[in-house]
Amino acid sequence: MSEDSAAAEVARMLAAADSAAALTGAGVSTASGIPDFRSEGGIWDEFDPSEFRYARFRSDPDGFWERRVEMHAAVYGGDIEPNAAHEALGTLEQAGVLDTVVTQNIDGLHQAAGSETVVELHGNADRVICDGCGQQQRAAPVHERVVDGDVPPRCSDCEGLLKPDVVLFGESLPQTALQRARESAREADIFLAAGSSLSVQPASSLPRTAVRTGATLVVVNLEETPVSDITEYELLADVTEMLPAIADRV
Ligand SMILES: [Zn+2]
Q1: Average pLDDT of each block of 10 consecutive residues along the chain (250 residues)?
Q2: 180 close to 119: Cβ distance less than 8 angstroms
Q3: What domains sit in the chain, N to C, each tagged with a CATH number?
Q4: How many angstroms separate the alpha carbon of residue 144 from the centre of ligand 1?
């Protein structure tokens, strides 16, 4: 099937479906200049992952936060904007054909592109959360405090340690997000996985859950994935081209 007719076919199915969910991974944000953390030349070549473990956050919050702010600046310091893939998913939701975006990304670019129902499996780097009372706030002012030497930053209400609102190594995924993600996979007639290698839990199991409960699985990714065997439409393509091609045809 040519890419054009595949896009048209997926668009037709989306328009006809009662419920559709998307799952996105690092590949959706690389065109926005955010490196895939795991890839060669990625962030973990420059920073040591062990510095960002939850245990380190607890035992040495000063050191953790100083490195965290440096890493945040290295990843998000540039002019980060949503790309055509984010825009296409935002358009599909606005058009009423996509119900939920479940994302492994922590960059907030889906919301910036107009997606409103976004399930963040790994949190959001633009927020911090109090490890004591759970209160959330914007990250930028907290990062400024760290740069000004106010380490570790503490909650103004309970004096608890502030933590980036992302899933650190050694931390479990947020249960509410995980439940919502599974629910959207079970409810979906069409499950569209985009820019994810689908190799890390729970991204690796959500497509299988969706298919088991009756969904048609569409995968848009540069490479084959471990769920190729159950993928009805495997579109080995650039997400910034294929997702707009689909959205344009809905
Ligand atoms: Zn607090």
Answers
A1: 87 97 96 80 82 96 96 88 98 97 97 98 97 96 97 97 96 96 98 96 95 98 96 97 97
A2: yes
A3: 1-34+82-122+172-250 (3.40.50.1220), 37-79+124-166 (3.30.1600.10)
A4: 19
Strand partners, 237: none
Ligand 1 geometric centre to CA of 162 (Å): 8
Annotated binding residue 133: yes
CA 185 to chain centre: 15
How high is the pLDDT of residue 76?
87
Question: Is residue 215 annotated as involved in ligand binding?
Answer: no
Q: Rounded to an integer, what distance in angstroms lies between the CA atom of residue 37 and that of residue 81?
A: 18
CB atoms within 10 A of CB 202: 17
Q: What is the identity of the amino acid at 134?
A: G
212 CA → ligand 1 middle, Å: 41
Q: What pLDDT, on a 0 to 100 scale, did the predictor assign at position 77?
A: 83
Q: DSSP per residue over 7-29, as a string?
A: HHHHHHHHHH-S-EEEEE-GGGT
Task: Give catalytic residues, as residue numbers.
Answer: 122
Q: How far apart are CA 225 and CA 184, in angstroms?
A: 21
217 with 203: CB under 8 angstroms? no
Do residues 175 and 146 make contact, with C-beta atoms less than 8 angstroms apart? Answer: no
Which residue in 85, 5, 9, 23 sits closest to 250, CA to CA? 9
- Collapsing DSSP to helix, strand or coil, 89 comes out as helix
Which of 221, 223, 220 is CA-nearest to residue 7?
220
- 148 annotated among ligand-binding-site residues: no
Q: How far apart are CA 51 and CA 38, in angstroms?
A: 15
Q: Concatenated DSSP letters for 115-146?
A: --SEEETTEEEEEEEETTT--EEEHHHHHHHH
